[in-house]
TrEMBL record:
It comes from the Bacteria. The lineage of its organism: Bacteria, Pseudomonadati, Bacteroidota, Cytophagia, Cytophagales. It comes from Spirosoma liriopis. Gene3D superfamilies: LytTr DNA-binding domain. This is LytTR family transcriptional regulator. It holds the Pfam family LytTR. SMART domains: LytTR. Residues 33-135 form the HTH LytTR-type domain. InterPro entries: LytR-like, LytTR_DNA-bd_dom.
Length: 146
């Protein structure tokens, strides 16, 4: 069951347009002996794996860097990137839906679906803050359309 929080996923052309309006710079990622610029708006989500971060991009590719998720979080635009769980940071531009799931009676659990098919759990402690961030993002998108 989808929550009534989202209208519909954003098209890729619209994502590009919003990225320009939000002034999302390229992200410089360190690799063995060199650095590489990656467009920030093409990052769908980041997944923490110990001292490494796995990037999932909109074209389906993945890249791993030797920086923690916490260090990467400080380099990302807080307007579109949120951390619903300690292991993941998601890009709200690629949010497909927010889903309530009942794991245990009287203890509903939220999860989010991304346009690439990934489903990410929202931690209970971060759920209310996450919903506020999603609503704020939705309002900002609507104000850009006006």
């Amino acid at each position: 069951m989808k929550a009534a929080l989202l209208q519909e996923p954003l098209s890729s052309a619209y994502v590009e347009q919003i990225a320009l309006q939000f002034d999302m710079p390229d992200l410089v990622l360190p690799f063995w002996g060199y650095r590489k610029k990656m467009p920030m708006h093409q990052i769908v989500r980041l997944e923490g794996e110990g001292n490494y971060t796995l990037f999932h991009f909109s074209d389906g590719s993945q890249l791993m860097v030797s920086l923690t998720l916490k260090k990467m979080e400080s380099r990302l635009s807080s307007k579109v990137f949120v951390r619903p769980h300690k292991k993941n940071i998601i890009n709200l531009l690629y949010l497909e839906g927010v889903y309530p799931e009942t794991v245990q009676p009287k203890r509903p659990q939220l999860s989010v679906g991304l346009v690439n098919g990934h489903r990410i759990e929202v931690s209970r402690r971060k759920a209310s803050q996450f919903i506020k961030q999603v609503k704020g993002f939705q309002e900002e998108i609507q104000s850009l359309n006006s």
